[in-house]
Every structure is written in C-alpha cells, then in structure tokens.
Amino acid sequence: MAQDGILLTEAQIAALQRIHWVVHCKAPFAGPEQVLRILSRCTHRVAILNRRLVYVSQRRWKHGTKRSRDFMVYVDIDAQHVQEFNKWYNEEHLPELLSVPGILSAARYEAVKGGPQYLACYELESVAVMQTPAFTNRPRTPWGQKVSPSVIGKNLTRIVGEQIYPDGVEMSERGMAPVLQIGRMSVPAEIDAEWNAWYSGEYVPGYRKVPGVIYARRYRVMEGTSGYSTVYEFASTAVPESPEWKEQQQHSSPNSPRMRQAMTHAPGSAGVYVRVNP
C-alpha cells in the first residue's frame, strides 16, 4: 500500500493495526458531530483506511463498513415524551449499542411519510450478534427503564433482516443514507418464489437507475412481523416525487400490477424517513 510516497508491506500494516492509536484527545471546538462530518468526507485517508467513521461522542468513536444484515427498530412516541426519548436515545442508548461487538454502524431517522414515527437502523456483522451476551445481557439503566421504546412507545416493531438482493455487498464504503424509503410486506407462500423473482429481477433494478437513488436492497425478515423488507437509499426526499420515479412506478414491468396485488404491506408502509442522528 502506498500513502504519501511511503510503501508499506502487509506485515507492516498488520503491525500498525495491532497498536491502540490515540488520534486526538482535545475536545473539538464545534462538538463531536462536526468531527464526524469532516472525517466522513475523507475516507481515502490512511487514518480511516477502507472503513467509514460512523459514530463520535465525547467518550468513544467507531467506524465500520457495510454488511448484509440489518436490525431496525420502529416506534411511535407521544408528544409529551419526545424530547426526553430523543435525548436518551442519542446520548445513552445509541452509544451503548454501538459499543456491542458486531454492530458496525447506526443512524436514527424520523418519518416524513408513513410510519411508525421513529426508526433506528443498525448494520450488523451477522444476525448472530443479536444472541451474544454483549447484546442480550446489557443492563437497563434507570433512564432506559423510564423512556425506552418498550416502556413508552407505541407500535413498537423490530425487524432483523438478511439481505437477498443484491447478491453481495456493493458500495461498501457508503455512509448511512440521508433519506430512506422502506417497504415492509408479506406474500402468500404459494406465490413467494414467483414474487421474489419479479421483485429482484424486474422491479427493483429499474428504481436503482432513478436519479437520486443511492442504493436499493431487499431483506428476508428473520425476526419480525413482515416477510420481507425493501430499503431504498435516497439523496433527498424529492426522489420518490420525481417524474423519473413515477415513470418507473407506472412502467416497471408488465407483471407489476398482478404482483403488487399479491403482497400485503404492514401498517405505515411504505415509509419515508429522514436521518436525524448522528
């Protein structure tokens, strides 16, 4: 590997990776969020080589790459609890989960269309992370006992998904998207194979070509109430309102009308979510 005119061997790189580096200990003037914004634009630098910095706080930082497993938590929160719920989630809960080995990255979103209102999206090394002691034995803090989704939330939905489209991870260094559109749906068993062939082979590929679509992927739900989940990553909320998107909706495939009738969406699906933290 060459960096700034210096050639490093694989053995030298491995030796450097075993060192516990302290990059900077001074508190940032504009807060940790500004550090994240700056460093996330510099992924070619050796300091975060091939791995995207995804979380910074006053106590820890973490970076990771994309994997093909997702854990999503949806919930509605009554207005009187929103401020404290968001404060707890951002300051305590999200850092706690990002400290669990195998949870690579995370972001929180708020619905601008559909629902439930809040979404936390976590990318996992594998679905087995959910069964590790580091995840299952986390103690609930007094703050969490007061305002966690299971205590004050409504329509709480947990989805653990294994990616089925595309076949493998693409654009692995991309960050958490600014906007998501997520469909949660189920289909009868007798049409499952045909429906999946249509969805992955005829339906989604056209949407990936629409301007402003960063990425699109499908998941088979391993834990949750729906059979499948489709996640579109957008550059902005204008994408699903664009003429190109609507053209694709109308002319995606001759099979689309029949296949759409076969599937049942979960309440609030499809939802459009805007990233709010980090």
Descriptive account of the structure:
The chain has an 8-stranded antiparallel β-barrel. Strands 1-2 form a two-stranded antiparallel ribbon. β3 and β4 form a beta hairpin. With 278 residues, it is of the alpha+beta class. It folds into 2 domains: 22-64, no CATH class; 66-169 and 176-277, Alpha-Beta Plaits (2-Layer Sandwich). Mean pLDDT is 84; it is low at 1-6 and 41-65. It is globular, with a radius of gyration of 20 Å. 28% of the residues lie in helices and 32% in strands.
List keywords for this structure.
single chain; 278 residues; alpha+beta; Alpha-Beta Plaits; 9 helices; globular
Distance between the amino and carboxyl termini: 31 Å
Spatial strand arrangement across the major sheet: 5-7-6-13-9-11-10-8
The assigned structural class equals alpha+beta
Nearest-angstrom radius of gyration? 20 Å
- Helix run count: 9
Give the CA-based shape. globular
Topology pattern, helix = H, strand = E = EEHHEEEHEEHHHEEHEEHHEE
Q: Write the CATH architecture name of the largest domain.
A: 2-Layer Sandwich
CATH topology category name of the largest domain: Alpha-Beta Plaits
CATH hierarchy class name of the largest domain: Alpha Beta
Task: Provide the helix percentage.
Answer: 25-40%
Structural domain tally: 2
List the uncertain runs: 1-6, 41-65
The count of strands amounts to 13
Largest sheet: 8 strands, antiparallel, barrel
